[in-house]
Every structure is written in C-alpha cells, then in structure tokens.
Amino acid sequence: MAMLSSHDHGTTRCFLIWSMLLSLVLHISSQLAKSHSTVQFLPGFNGPLPFLLETGYVEVGETETELHGELFYYFIESESNPQEDPLLLWLTGGPGCSALSGLVFEIGPLTFKKEEYNGSLPNLALNPHSWTKVSSIIFLDSPLGTGFSYPKTELAAQQSTSKLVQNAHQFLRKWLVDHPKFLPNEVYIAGDSYSGIPLPVIVQEISDGNDGGVQPWINLQGYLLGNPLTARTEDNYQIPFSHGMGLISDELYESLQKNCRGEYRNIDPGNVLCLRDKEYYEETISGIDTNHILEPKCEFGLRNPIENPWKATTIFSSGLALPPLNCRSHAYFLCAYWANNDNVRQALHIRKGSKGEWKRCDFYIPFKFDIHESLPYHVNLSRKGYRSLIYSGDHDMRVPFLDTQAWIRSLNYSIVDDWRQWYSNGQVAGYTRTYSNRMTFATVKGGGHTAPEYRPEECLAMFSRWISNRPL
To answer: Domain range for residue 433?
Structure first.
C-alpha cells in the first residue's frame, strides 16, 4: 500500500475542511430557507392572494444560553414599488398583542368579513386602505410568547421591556441579512399603544448600533407611533378628556380638580375626598367604551349569556356566546377562530407543537416592565435628526390625545407649521402641528384606540403623505 506524502496529507486535510465548511454553509442555507415561506393561498380567502405574503421565524436572544426564542413574523411586500418604497417594522401593543391584530384590524391588506359566525371558518376580505399600498411591512409577534412567537427555554419565557427592545433590534438585523435586497430601502419603526414605551428605545438601539459599526447597516429614517403610552401619565388626562367630551358634570370635574390637584393615578390613600370623587367618576363613565367613547361597550371575552343581560348573537353548546355583530370585538373572536384552525396554521407554516392556543392579546405572558417611560428617547432621537409621526384618535379615552399633546409640548420645540386642519376625501380628517425637531403630531377625527382601526381611509392618507415627505 502506497504511503501518502506530507503534501498529499495537507491536500486531504484541506479537502476535508472544505467539505465540512461546505456542509455547514449548506446546512445554514437550508435552515434559512426553512425559516420563511411564501404564502399564496389562505383559508377563508377566495383565490390566490393579490400581494406577496411571507411568514417565518427568526431566532433571537441575548446570550448562547438564552438564544432559544423564535420570533414569528408576517411580511407583506409593497403593492406599489417594493424596490424603492420604505420598509416598516410594525409592533402591536399590549404587551402581548399579536401583530396579526395590526395586520387584519389596522393597517394590513386583509380583514375579516363582517358577518355572523356560523361555526365554519371565518371569511377574509381585502382592505382597500392598507398601508402596504405605499410601503413594505414586517408585522412582528413580539415579545416572545405573543401570537405565534415562542420561547424555547424557561429563561427565554421571562420577558421584559428591555428584552423586547433587544430582541426586536436583533430580529431586524437578522431579517435584513436574510433579505439583502431590502438593505438599501429606508426603514421606519412603527407601532401603537404600549409600543410607545419600547419603540423609541428600539430606534435608539438601532441608531447606536449603526454608529458602532454593527452590521448590517440599517437605513433608519424615523418612526411612527399611534395612540402611544409615553410617560405613563395618561390617567391624569382621562378626567379632563371626559369633561371636555361632556361625560362628567362641571361640578364633579371641579371637585376632582380641587380634591385631587391633578393627580388621579397615584392617589394618597389618606385623601378621602379625592378617593370619593374618583369612585363617583368611575361609576359615571362605567358604561363608556374607553377605546372609543362613541362605540357600544361590548364584552372583550367570551362569557356565559345566561349570567349576563347583554344579548348574544351566537350561543354554543358550551354556553359561551359571541358579542353581537355591531360590537367590534365580534371580529376579534372571528380572528381567534381563524388563527386556531389547523388548515390556517398549515398555510401560515406554523411549526407543529410550537404553540398552543393562539390569542389576539395574551396579557398573562411573564413580563417585567423595566422601562417606565420613553420621553428621554424621543429627545435623543430628535437630536439625531430622525423624523417622527405621532398620531392620536381623538375619541380614544384610554390614551387621550391631551396626554400626547402634553408630553410633546414638554419637549419645548419651536413650531414650524402651527395647528391646522388636514383633509381626506375633501373633508376635515383631523388637526396637525409640526415641530422643528422633525416631529409631526396629528389627531384623527373620529379615531379611537387605535386610530387606523376606526378611520382606515383617513389614516392611509395621513401615512402616505407623511412617508413621502409631503405635508399632511
């Protein structure tokens, strides 16, 4: 048997190393390929989807011991010019509310048909006012445990605001590595409600990463926030809002002002007069839907109709009932029935065994609120020159526009375009003001919490103008 020379040994070693590297590359490539899939048909929608929908997972975590969580996303390519149109990363609030809620109830191209639930799979329809008309959007189930996202370890299951921030930042860079054709596109981070706390922090993390040379570089241009929590002062503005909207009497409002001195959130237990007024206030507004004061107040969850006076439209053998069709929450249940259907999960390429019951909003995720306000981050981002659009539905009592106006005013930036009307379809759609820090504030007339769900046509007009650098 012939002996191999040292040169032959070296050649063999190189070949083996090369083979191993090739196998590793092929393995990584196959894993990437398996991490996302194009969806052409969805159960409940008639025919092929008239837009590009991709679903997938991105693994995230801080350290190797914690790198065991999968963030699920829905990506919809712009229906106009995906090569040049901006890319949005969308975060729904909660924390714990699925991005599917933002997709089908707010700014995405699909919605549920408004029809009585008969036990079959709910039907989908097109939303003509989708923001994907002018942008590509990644709808992200975040934090881990939300929607179809899932943790792989007990440690990863323990979520917090700061972890949400780190994971969203990591997600976006990994997603762009896997979708390099979108690297040149302008990027905006967008969201609503509770996202008002983590979202500006995410924007700063991305910006700091860019400054520090973290790759890939992200073409970050700014951010959008709807009806956002910011400094956790919203409770102090609900009472002035209620008074201004004619929900409480002048006498009660004056008594609240006198006895509580403007602090309605953290009331001194010894302030008996304030506590008495606050209790009377809660009783006075108890029949009002805080998400939109003009909407009927409906059940948010399934309840037994025998125990409740409100009329249910559909009663099941289990004794559970759906809210009436005129309740907005009726569609929330259609969404849950749809997302928990096995055929739907298969179409969305949900990993088997990764998720039990899908919930539109899961408020029982282990979550630590370790970032309490985002105001300082708005200041930092303004100094860096990022654009921002802050909008509020003017009938939202949960996070009243008065609260949003107050924290924006506290930034003390000069006004470059003062308070004025903005229009949609020839009608006043709200009011707007622009500041020298490149921040635009807008109210959406008739909008609730959150605005696009109630005023989709107007919100698309607002977004389309702002994203293309036109005045509202």
So the answer is: 60-232+369-467
Q: Is-catalytic flag, 211?
A: no
* This prediction's pTM: 0.88
Is position 449 annotated as part of the catalytic site? yes
CA-to-CA dists, residue 249 to 218, 243, 265, 297, 398, angstroms: 52, 7, 20, 21, 20
CA distance 313 to 256: 40
Same domain assignment for residues 218 and 76: yes
pLDDT in tens, 374-423: 999 999 999 999 999 999 999 999 999 999 999 999 999 999 999 999 99
Which of 98, 396, 403, 424 is catalytic? The answer is 396
Asked whether residue 176 falls in the same domain as residue 77, the answer is: yes
The total of structural domains in the chain comes to 2
What phi and psi, each to the nearest 5 degrees, are found at residue 150?
Answer: -150, 145
Both 88 and 184 in one domain: the answer is yes
pLDDT single digits (tens) 50-90? 999 999 999 998 665 555 899 999 999 999 999 999 999 99
Q: Which of 193, 329, 374, 388 is catalytic?
A: 193
135 has catalytic annotation: no
